[in-house]
Amino acid sequence: MIAKYNRISLGLGIPGLVMQIAGRVGAEALGVFALPVVLLGTGLLLAGFAFYAKAKGRHPAWCLMAFLSLIGLVVLSCLKDRSGCGDMKPE
């Protein structure tokens, strides 16, 4: 796995996942702001998943798994690493 891309994916993906969950769970409390929070979270998650796919040596189109939210994360984490870098060697 390419460590540089993995770090970027964590920096974008974790806040995106938290925003998606918070927007959906707190829809009643957030009111009008729930939809923008969910959409921004989905955008961050898309970017994070794209970098995670690149870290595993996969095509960035795997980022579309972000539309499945947490399930997409499980699917991406189960993909075989094709980067040829071994165990998290820095780029």
Task: Please explain how this structure is put together.
- This protein is an all-alpha fold and 91 residues long.
- The chain has one domain (3-78).
- Helix content is 64%, strand content 0%.
- It starts with a helix and ends in a 13-residue tail after the last helix.
Helix/strand layout:
Elements (H helix, E strand, L loop, with lengths): L2 H23 L1 H4 L3 H22 L14 H9 L13
Helix pairs in contact: 1-3
Structural features:
mainly alpha; about 65% helix; 4 helices
Unreliable spans? none
Topology as a string of helices (H) and strands (E): HHHH
How many domain regions? Answer: 1
How many E-type strands?
0
Biggest β-sheet strands, sense, barrel: none
**Approximately what portion of the residues adopt beta-strand conformation?**
under 5%
